[in-house]
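quick one, 101 residues, struct below
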Amino acid sequence: QAGAKWLDKPWPRLGAAAYAAYVIHPVFLNSWILLWVVVLRSCDACGAAPRWREEQAVSTTRLSNGYVWLGWAFTLAATQATVWPCAHLLTRVPAFKGILV
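---
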C-alpha cells in the first residue's frame, strides 16, 4: 500500500472529468470512426472500401476479422487518448465548471 501512493493522484482528476468525457465522447468516437473509414477507402491494397446502400445505414462490405479488430483498437485508443485530456480541459473552463463537474 505504501508503494502505491502515486495511484492516488490521477483518480480524483479522472473522476472530476468523467461526466465531461461521457458527454463529449460521441463527437470524438464518430470522428475517429470516420477517419478509419477514410483510411479503408484509400487503401487499395486491402480491398476493403466500405460500401453502403442508399436505403440502409448498415455497410454491406465484407471485412476480414483483422480489419474489424484493427479498426476497433484504433478507434478505442484514439478516442480514449483524445477524450480524457479534452474533458479535463473543459472542466477547467469557468463557464463549464458548474455544468460538467
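The chain has a mean pLDDT of 81.
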